[in-house]
Amino acid sequence: MALSVHLLRPWQKLLVGSTASVMTSKWSRCSSVLSGNRVRMVEKSPNSTDPETSQGVCTIHGKQQQQATPISRAVFPPQAVFKRRFSALCGSSEVQEGALIMEKVCLNEAARMVEVEWSGGGVSRFPYVWLRDNCQCPQCFNPDSRSRLVLMSDLDVNVSPVDVTEVSQAKGSSLSVEWPDGHKSRYDWHWLKERCFSTQALSERQKDWQRKTQLWGAELAHNMPKADFPALLTDDRALYDFLVRLDSVGLVLVQNVPCDVGQVEKLANRVAFLKHTCSGKEFVVMNKTKPGSDVAYTSVKLGLHTDLNSYTYKPGVQMLHCIEQTTGEGGDNSLVDGFNAASQLKEENPDAFRILTTVKVNFRHVGMDYHKYFHLKRRNVISLNDQEDIQSISYSDQSRTSILDLPADLVQPFYDALKAFNTIMCLPRNCLSLKMAAGELIVFDNNRTLHGRSAYSPDSGTRHLQGGYMDWDEIYSRMRAIKADLGIEA
Ligand code: OGA
Ligand code: ZN
Ligand code: ZN
User: Fold this and answer.
1) Which helix (H) or strand (E) holds 351?
2) Mapping DSSP to helix (H, G, I), strand (E, B) and coil, where does residue 57 land?
3) Of 1, 353, 393, 419, which residue is most buried, by most CB within 10 angstroms?
4) For the chain, what are the domain ranges?
5) Which CATH number is 218-486 given?
6) Smallest CA separation from ligand 1 atom 9, residue
7) CA 240 to CA 257: how far, in whole Å?
8) What is the CA radius of gyration of the chain?
9) Ligand 1: residues within 6 Å at CB?
């Protein structure tokens, strides 16, 4: 999962505070901290004779340039070091706990970057054009909508600063940049650090976008992720933890749900809102006298599937709430981690995996439910992202059409691949069986967790489920918002 970059990172929680003593540094010239190019530089003055503070990478007063800290290894010194150094530089002023100061700032004209040497070690480089594009002043950026007001049509992508200075405050340094038209920009140290371009920072940020997936098989039945419905409705932390499990496991059993219609919507409204589809906002799953267009509205066995593969934006998450369960045999749900099954297929049958990741299958839903509809979509059964990780499963024998846009010679291998995937899904080690009791609700990732149902007898009492969908964009958005509100760390 990808969580927002604006959420607090460990080092950020240490910052903030009011302004106190302000000290502006002066200009001189030196070699680039990284490339040795001639650059303009500002040094800490007058107290930078402190042997610790003068160990930076820019030369001072024409002394020979010291070894530059490779940008990829730029690190933050311990907080104590900042505090001590800032005190030394600013006399009596105390830098706030964890705040960073900039030892030197340089204009590297050859690289067209501002180079910032952090007190205690580490150098960050900020391209001129990026700094100008991201000026945070009210003329350039609307803080309420967090929107850039500088438009590309007005941006000079070759702009260079005429002046750059470091401004020290109790809350840490900020970088002040003056542009040729007299415009002035100011960037706080933590804002810059959060956007650092170093190899290390880039790879740290990349991790934020990686989903923490926990694969499972039938054994999950003994350790089923569970949530309490009343808690989800009232407690944001419980809701957050539930969504984290839904994201990493792809399946959560919610308990203590009232046995009335409308609960699926209540849960969705706590997260964001229901995704409206051709089945309506919520839908009733029952053995209907007139099943209409969905075989789920009968009592027959439903093979493992993901829902609404015929949509370009198929629902990200499905909810099925058991209001009444059949008193007879059957009506059990089968649940399979499609990511796990697809990984096993990749390992055991790479040819089949390749076919299912490349051949486009037609999925169709035609009928009349909430309204008259005709959905059609061609997609891979297993889709990969640009890192070649399994990203989404779209499988349904029910809605896969008979039109196969394949040369005849490739049809048999395609069926062999589908069969191999289905066989893996159905293995007892992979397929979890769950007969929901009235008052239970399963929530699962419709891009990952396949669900099915065993047949039941329509004569053994009523089986009544209510279903609904949500989208991952709304779920992730809610998770980020709760995380920020409650100050939850990564
Ligand atoms: C569905 C479905 C399963 C069931 O409605 O999408 O798969 O248990 N229902 O009835
Ligand atoms: Zn501006
Ligand atoms: Zn279904």
Assistant:
1) helix 350-358
2) coil
3) 393
4) 10-207, 218-486
5) 3.60.130.10
6) 296
7) 18
8) 29
9) 285, 296, 302, 307, 333, 451, 453, 465, 467
Structure tokens at 149: 């007001």
Per residue in 242-263, pLDDT tens? Answer: 999 999 999 999 999 999 999 9
Ligand 1 atom with the smallest distance to the CA of 436 is: 8
Cβ neighbours of 288 (radius 10 Å): 13
In whole angstroms, what is the distance from residue 303 CA to residue 229 CA? 28
Do the bridges between strand 449-453 and strand 302-305 make them parallel or antiparallel, or are there none, so unpaired?
antiparallel
For ligand 1, atom 3, the nearest C-alpha belongs to 453
What's the 229 CA to ligand 3 centre distance in angstroms? 22
Entry pTM? 0.82
Question: How many angstroms does the Cα of residue 305 sit away from the middle of ligand 3?
Answer: 6
Cis peptide before 78 (omega within 30 of 0): no
Three-class SS state of 231: helix
**Ion ligand 3 neighbours, Cβ < 5 Å:** 307
* Residue 305 alpha carbon, nearest atom of ligand 1: 7
Q: 10-207: which CATH number, 3.40.190.10, 3.30.2020.30, 3.30.470.20, 3.30.420.270?
A: 3.30.2020.30
pLDDT digit string, tens, across residues 431-485: 999 999 999 999 999 999 999 999 999 998 999 999 999 999 999 999 999 999 9
